[in-house]
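Entry: Ribonuclease H1 N-terminal domain-containing protein
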Amino acid sequence: MTRIPKPQFSPLKGTPEGRRLRDLEIMAALDEVTPKVARQHIIWIESDDEDEQLMVQMERLSVKQEASNCTPQTGKKCPQDQRPSSSTQWHETPPPSRAPPDPPKYSSPKPSTSQTSSTSMVPPAARATPGRQGIFNAYVVYSGRTPYFYTDWPAVKRMLDEDKDLVFKGFFTLEHAEEAWYAASDSGVIVAIQNGTGRPIWSVTEGVKPAVYKSVHEAVKIGLGWGGGYLKGWHNEADAIEDWNDKARARPSRIVTTPDPAFFL
């Protein structure tokens, strides 16, 4: 870069003649630094600090000239070629007008319907027999090998297929099923049914409708209202009736009528 010597102080500085002489000096300096620069590129200085600004402008013109002379043939590095070394990867900055691509859109696969929790399945429609309709969400099994409350209709259906005399009932809610089960279990109904398996006559001495019934299913349904109470299995009807009457004649009576649990309200 060619350095321009700072002009000497002149008594004509600030006068029209001094400005004309300064302009001639600028033109001569430009011809020396870059003869190819057109005259219209001359920058006129109107400030008081003319000498300092003249030097600044001359330095800028020298930098521009040096940048214009850098070519692959000369071997000079241009300012735009000053990139990181080969050990560092160079990334071009995308033009401002180029918007980044939209991120890919993914869609989650629909949940599979091949497997469904048995506890959440709606029981299939069955014969219009108490406890077998598909509108129920829970079931209580009173007899058989595994009495309990269930929410799985297929499990209850398998027990029914093995035992046609299975005593069970469907409930609209699991809460009602649990309430019915614990009422029957805590009062001894479940144990009485297990002990009296195969007996044809059943007496209810404590329940919704105490009486002697000809099947355990009727005794649990009508006599107990699917809840708790006291019942007993008998081998013959005469013995069951005699026992029931003896309890009714006792003072106080040992026949107890309980409120309907109303599990279906």
